[in-house]
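agent> fetching stored inputs for the cytidine-5'-triphosphate docking request
agent> found them:
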Amino acid sequence: MNGKRILLIIGGGIAAYKSCELVRLLRKQGASVRCVVTASGQKFVTPMSLAALSEDKVYTDLFDLKDEAEMGHIQLSRQADLVVVAPATADLMARMAAGIADDLATTLLLATDKPVLCAPAMNVRMWQHPATQRNIATLKSDGITVLNPDEGPMACGEFGPGRLPEPEAIAAAIAASLNTSRPLSGKHIIVTAGPTHEPIDPVRVIANRSSGKQGFAIAAALAEAGAKVTLIAGPVSLSTPAGVTRIDVEAARQMEGEVNAALPADAAIMVAAVADWRVDEAPSKLKKEAGPPALNWQKNPDILANLCAAPNRPKLVIGFAAETETAVEHATAKRLRKGCDWIVANDVSIDKMGGEQNRVHLITNAGTESWDRMDKTAIARALAQRIADALA
Ligand code: CTP
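agent> prediction call returned; pasting tokens
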């Protein structure tokens, strides 16, 4: 953290006392800390203590003309490498999510062009309230990092998630945010994920067991590495990763249309389990009395193969192949058949689809690399690093 500048915004909560320790820890690790305390934050911790610990002026009021003369709020928000909100109260996060700027803290948060990290702290019921969870989802999709609160006994006597993480944990998250290299910044990457649903009639579909987790993890890792990510997702129940543009689709032909509309791109990672076949859709609900339906099967477009053959093909196109047997052989042949640069073979005979882990083999024209069985997020990060190397 040597030489890094942190703007620490302290909201009003009993956990604000921990922010004093956070200032001390960050400074010990070489960072400089400039504090902003909200009006309610000042009920829990005094600007004087924070000024002594940070050895800097503490900012409290948007309309303090002396502050504006010394340093405008825009400048204050831009001079940091990272803006940290700790404790981030339910109210402060709600105002952030709504884009309200009615005091110094929220004005800085709206004006900043720097990464923002929130460490929430509040009563367990407030944390679990749908309004808070909705606001947190909004903040995450705006690209803000929101730490999970700790679970345990609370100052109000209740028990559960909502406690401010310990200062050491917040400092570690700050260090991780500051050290994130963004090797994919300036690159546009398309990711497809999840299953497709092919309609049979207005109420029935042909589906598959893809959970979308691996594709969403890849989209998240690419965004973390700085890429502009367009995630084209089949029907899944997953939340949109931070900083990712998501387009929801149902059927294969719709997915192909959105992939083409998202071009040009530097890379495309086709993780979706696209249905190879669709049927002619009945205009009204099929009735049981009519007997077993005669389904008229049609071939779906091969989105990956078509993209590889397109004139505006991305520089790097990666396919995925979930196989139940001889994964490497099948996937090697698939790579050549479809014309993609790399294919990731996923042995679904080991981990059932929908789990948290995968065992994959990365097949390129240089050969096959078999990776250890690991979490889908770890696979995603390793793949993002390889993509960054290939696009560098
Ligand atoms: N794929 C695609 N469009 C399709 C089918 C597959 O884009 N209509 C992509 C997938 O997203 C994946 C790769 O092709 O990246 C391999 O998918 P897979 O279903 O394993 O390949 P298939 O060609 O359908 O082969 P199989 O006979 O094993 O189903």
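agent> quick read of the result: Residues 188-391 form a domain with the Rossmann fold fold (CATH 3.40.50.10300).
agent> awaiting further instructions
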